[in-house]
Specification:
Blueprint (H helix, E strand, L loop, with lengths): L2 H8 L2 H12 L6 H18 L8 H22 L6 H10 L2 H12 L1 H9 L16 H21 L15
Length: about 170
Amino acid sequence: MPPGLAAMVVQTQALFTIVFAALAAGERPTGRQWAGTAVAFAGLAVIAATVGHDLTAIGLGLTAMSAVSWGVGNVLVKRLPAVDTLALAVWLSLVPPLPGLALAILWDGPRALWDSGLGASWLAWPPRRPRSCSASDSARAAGMGLVLLGLAVIVRPGAAGVTEPPPRSR
């Protein structure tokens, strides 16, 4: 999966957070949040329709599952009692990579881990660019645009002309 596309799909965790918070935590998303979620999921569907050459179904599925995992985690963290958020973030960032690293070494061996570090794409500069834009690239760009539009509608009041009525005074 191309890295930019993976980054976009992972950020759909905001959408999954809204859905899971509504289903599991009894939260009531606003109309704007539901509208943004629908638009962004439509964008995700457009991206999914481009599965092919450099985007595999398994790659897209696993990346989407990471977004689902983040969404579940967001809802669970929200249920915690008051804690030091910096300490929580540090522990959540330090602890999970250790079992993952152990599993990677156990599964593929230390040599594969070393080779993957040496072959990391961020070490290759300048980045390779395709000579032409394919139809799937255009569809992905449209899907990414819809995801971004959906996120903007969720986060920014008045984005894309979608507004909530002002709160009633009591």
